[in-house]
Each structure stands twice: as structure tokens, then as C-alpha cells.
Amino acid sequence: MSLQELTTRIEDKSARLAVIGLGYVGLPVACEFARAGFDVLGVDILAERVEKINRGVSPIEGNEPGLAELLREVIGGGRLRAATDYADLRDRDVILIDVETPVDEHNIPRYRALYSALTSLGPVLKEGALVIVESTLAPGTMRDVVIPQLEEHSRRRLNAGFHAGNCPERVMPGKLLANLRGLSRVCGGMTPETSAALIALYRHIVQADLDPADCITAEIVKTAENAYRDVQIAFANELALVCEAAGGDVWKVRELVNKSPGRNVLLPGAGVGGHCIPKDPWLLAYGARGTDLNLSLIPSARRVNDAMPRHILDLLAGALAERGEALKGKTVLALGYAYLEDSDDTRNSPTAAFLAALETAGAAARVHDPFVEGYQGDALKMAEGADAAVLLVKHSEYKTLDLAALAGALRLPVFVDGRGLFTPAELTAAGFTQRIIGRGQAA
Ligand code: SAJ
User: Fold this and answer.
1) Structure pTM?
2) Whose CA is nearest to atom 1 of ligand 1?
3) What is the pLDDT at residue 172?
4) What is the predicted pLDDT for the residue at 441?
5) Atom 31 of ligand 1 has which residue's CA nearest to it?
6) Residues with CB under 6 A from ligand 1
7) Cα–Cα distance, 235 to 173 (Å, whole number)
8) Do 103 and 282 form a contact (C-beta atoms < 8 A)?
9) Second-level CATH architecture of 3-217
């Protein structure tokens, strides 16, 4: 089938779709295309996940508005089927790949899941099929990994025996379907005609801009948008450190700076976690591999943000020292373990880094988090007998904490606010020896 014929079948929804990787990206996108009227096959290596999906039960944790109902609808309507066997992909005209693309401890992309998907897909790839990688890729990965692997394992040539593109996803936990429908997509094709085929496909489920591009552009845009955010957050964090040292109040400073046109200082905090911001800057940086370009800003921003949990520990040590107390041997109540407020997602949690630093300093921890299994419960009860409390995540429920009761429950009334949730007056009124990130002692 020619790309033009395939594009026509995409437009009339007779093209048969597949999604490889039924996680928090792949499953919603499979459901959306099924809802739009396509015949969709979902493939995943986890048999238990496949079995659950075929029962119409979502394996996605957390609150995802509309997803559970949509899955039941499309499974019940026979529009979506899940399988573990790649052989089922033989009759698929369009195959989306939604597998994880992490970096290793040296910040190098480790495409194990991507290689596995491509190696398994190649031999069963239908003549003239269109392969679209939705995963976030380091710039150059389509050219250097995806195409060579598909050509090797399918024994076909790009733009002759198959077509390929990169359409990075912009989903976020808690808003999977809303983002899928409402956020623009960069439709990167290995040829302009392929890019047009992607636009024809995503037009069925996306009510926002679908921007044509080549694959390098698509790869750079996705990693850059998150690297940009990481640098923005690092600026806010470093400004907080300056304010602490200079006796300023970063919360007032950022409010006034942001009155200046075109400024938008983000929020300093106890660290940067999650599934994408910590890794995408490294994927972007990897795009300069093999050149003599030595990046400084992007890696430095990562180092600034990764140092924030340790800074919170330093603030705690300072507050204890103010009361003539050492950190060693103390028991600390850590408030918040999720990477983001009002979320149960703990991936790359900054609190985990804080706890590791606390242990190295010879102190013990109790962890409370209203959203995370194993850490839920009564924070005030958990505070009884502990020596200090540290707020690391600004979950909404912490805003209504009875601070006086907390101070009374702790052995020492010491509180470190790593997210600027409280004002000095609120903490002083409760009788705390306090540190708030970004507030200098004179502030
Ligand atoms: N954080 C700060 N200060 C800030 C903003 C965030 O310290 O001003 C911290 C958060 O506490 C968290 C981490 O950074 O630990 C990431 O927070 P995030 O708000 O960026 O949330 P994410 O990781 O879910 O980022 C997603 C990204 N979306 C996609 O990759 C599709 C990102 O591009 C979005 O900009 C972001 O959501 C968003 O705007 O909510």
C-alpha cells in the first residue's frame, strides 16, 4: 500500500491501528483512537496488564477522569483488544510505540524497551505500514536507532517498505485524556508526506494545533520544553538561595519580579521529581553527543535542582543548631513523599533524596503522605515524640495543619518549610523555631 493510500485509509478510519506499550501514555491513546472509530490492537509485554485491559479494567493508578469509563466502552464495543503476542501486529497499518525512554545513572539514554519493541515489531511489520514513536527521544534517535532497527529487522527500506515518524506525547498524570485531546502535537515525519499522514491521524483525536515538522525538530521540541522548565525552576531555586544568604524573601521577590513584563519566576522548592522533567534535559543534551559542544546551563540546572533536598537538610540542621541541638540521632517527620502536590505519583521523589541525606547524617525519619500507600495516617500522631518536622510537598491538606498542635506533639518545636506553604508569622505563632526556603534569617 502506498503512503497516499494509507493516508486515505487513515482519513476514513479503515486503517487498522496498534499501540505498543499500554502504560499511562499508550493506553489512553489506544482508547481515544478506538473511541474515534478505529480498530485498535494494544500490545504489552505484561500479561497481567493485558488481561486486565481485556476485562475493561484500567491498570493505571491514580485518578484519571474518564479513562476507566472510556476503556470499558471501547473494550465492550470490540474496538480495542489487548495482546502480548507481536504476531498479532501483522495486519496493522499504523503502529504507535509508547515505551519508556529513561536515562541511566550516567544520564545516558537507555533504550532497552525501545530496542525490544523495534526488534519484535520488525519481523511482523506489514508492507507499507506507518510506525509512529510517541515516546520522548533524544534528538537523532529516529535517524540513529529507530530507522536502522526497523530496516534491519523488517528487511525493508524506509519510505519504500515502511514509513516512520515521531509525535511526542504531552500527557500528564491526572490529566491524561484532557491533555491528549487539548494539547497541540508536533507531527514529525521522515518525509513531509509522512508528516501529513500523522496530521490526518491525530486530527481524529486532537482538538488543538497539529504542527508539521521533521523528526529532529519533533525530538528537540519535546526534550527542550521540559529542559526549559527545569532551567526555569533552577533559576527560582538559586534565587531562593541568594535570598537566604542576603536576608531577602524570595516569595516577595518573585511576586515583584513577575510584575515586570515578560518575567515568570517559578516556585523554589525542595526539589524536582517526576517522570519527565529530571530526564528530558539529559535526553536533549545527548543530542549534542559526538560533537565538541560542552553544554553548561542545562547540566547546571539539573545539578541545582538535584541539590535542593540536601539544602532542605541544611536548613533543618541550622534550625536545630539554633536550639543547641545536633541533627545526628534525631527523628524527623517528613511531610510529603509524592513528587507533586495532591498526587500519588512518587517517581523520582525529591523526598527520597532528602531521606537518604538524612540517614547519612545519622538521623531517622517518619514519612507522612496522604496520597501514597504506606505513608498515610494522622500526621499529628506521627509527630508525637519526633524531634522536628520538614514539609517537602505542598499537598493541599497540609495547609490546614494545626501548627500549634504539631508544635506540641513534637519533642522540639522545629519546622522547616521546603515549599513556602506557610508564612513566618504562622510558624512563629505556633511557637516554632523555623526555616522557610528562600527566606533569609533577617527576612
Ligand atoms: N516544581 C518546582 N517548582 C515549580 C514547578 C515544579 O519545584 O515551579 C517541581 C514539582 O514539585 C515537581 C517537579 O518540579 O517535583 C515537576 O513538576 P511539574 O509541574 O513540571 O510537573 P510534571 O513533572 O508532571 O511536568 C509535566 C510536564 N508535562 C509533560 O511532560 C507532558 C511539563 O512539560 C509540564 O510543563 C508540567 O507537567 C506542567 O506544566 O504541569
Assistant:
1) 0.95
2) 272
3) 84
4) 80
5) 170
6) 170-172, 225-226, 229, 233, 266-267, 269, 272-274, 276-277, 339-340, 350
7) 25
8) yes
9) 3-Layer(aba) Sandwich (3.40)
CA 74 – CA 183 distance, rounded (Å): 23
For 255, other C-beta atoms within 10 Å of its C-beta total 11
Cβ–Cβ < 8 Å for 371, 343:
yes
Q: Read off the C-alpha cell for 302.
A: 539539573
- Ligand 1 mean position to 432 CA, how many Å? 30
Q: What is the mean pLDDT of each run of 10 residues along the chain (443 residues)?
A: 96 98 96 98 97 95 89 97 97 98 95 98 98 98 98 98 97 89 98 98 98 98 98 98 98 98 98 96 96 96 98 98 98 97 94 98 98 96 98 97 98 98 98 97 64
The residue contributing the CA closest to ligand 1 atom 24 is: 172
Active site residue 276: yes
If you measure from the C-alpha of residue 277 to the centroid of ligand 1, how many angstroms do you get, rounded to a whole number? Answer: 7
DSSP string covering 34-70 = HHHT-EEEEE-S-HHHHHHHHTT-----S--TTHHHH
CA distance linking residue 230 with residue 237, whole number of Å: 10
Q: What is the pLDDT of residue 442?
A: 62
Which atom from ligand 1 is nearest to the alpha carbon of 345? 24
Q: Which of 222, 279, 330, 394 is catalytic?
A: 222
Nearest to 367 by CA among 345, 348, 399, 393: 393
- Phi then psi for residue 208, to 5 deg, are -145, 180
| Alpha carbon distance 130, 93 (integer Å) | 6
What's the CATH number for 307-436?
A: 3.40.50.720
Residues of the chain with CATH 3.40.50.720: 3-217, 307-436
Question: What is the predicted pLDDT for the residue at 415?
Answer: 98
Which residues in 200-338 belong to E strands, given as ranges? 210-214, 331-335
Return the SS3 of 163: strand
264: left (phi over 0), alpha (psi -120 to 50) or beta: beta
CB 357 within 8 A of CB 280: no
Q: How much distance in Å is there from the Cα of 81 to the middle of ligand 1? A: 33
**Which residue out of 100, 172, 177 has the highest number of ligand 1 atoms within 8 Å of its CB and is therefore the one to mutate?**
172
